[in-house]
Amino acid sequence: MTDRKAELAANLARVEERISAACAGAGRKREEVTLIVVTKTYPASDVRLLAELGVRHVAENRDQEAAPKAAECADLPLIWHFVGQLQTNKVRSVSSYADVVQSVDRKRLVDALSRAAVGAARELGVLIQVALDVDSSDRGERGGVGPDGVERLAESVAEAEGLRLDGLMTVAPLAGPYEGRPRAAFDRLMEISSRLRVAHPAANMVSAGMSSDVEEAVAAGATHVRVGTAVLGVRPRLR
């Protein structure tokens, strides 16, 4: 085993222990939580090593990095998640490799994704990104639509050809009433998810939690956690 593979294996084992302990503490089964490894800023060689170690879900947040990496790893049995703020001019590229787009926060983006998915003869999973630093339907500081805008946007996704409404995503806010309170933020997301599932029962995916707040996300009920630094190490500074 190479040094890097051994390092990744050890880091994965530590993250696995954290998720398992959090599940046990919350009275949940370990298989209820899916680990998504965020591979942004790391090379395709690391993605290959992660695949060898059993990782199946990976995430990226910048198309210019993700597109060539996904192409280089196209032979691997991976599910690719796009988690960054997405501009409409990048939609065609993202829809060619992403299986799930977790950062949908406006109708214009829904329409663009639908056109691209139909054009590529693909079905894209969609998560609505919920901004918990705003109360209204405005966009949040880190992207996302406010809680009041979720229902209308969900209807747009559900009606859009080529798209599948999978659920909700959030990032613990850096401002507003939930600043520094990730557990409260994730509890709020679960409330919004419960309401969404009344009209859209299949939209049961809840993506929340990162390296620093995995435990809080699992305790709240997240189905997917997005972990980067705790698996891959401190990120290189972007040039």
From TrEMBL:
Keyword line: Pyridoxal phosphate
Gene3D superfamilies for this protein: Alanine racemase (3.20.20.10)
Domain of life, source organism: Bacteria
Entries under Pfam families matching the protein: Ala_racemase_N
InterPro entries: Ala_racemase_N (IPR001608), PLP-binding_barrel (IPR029066), PyrdxlP_homeostasis (IPR011078)
Modified residues (N6-(pyridoxal phosphate)lysine): 40
UniProt domain Alanine racemase N-terminal: residue ranges: 12-236
Role: Pyridoxal 5'-phosphate (PLP)-binding protein, which is involved in PLP homeostasis.
Family of the protein in this entry: Belongs to the pyridoxal phosphate-binding protein YggS/PROSC family.
Protein name (database record): Pyridoxal phosphate homeostasis protein
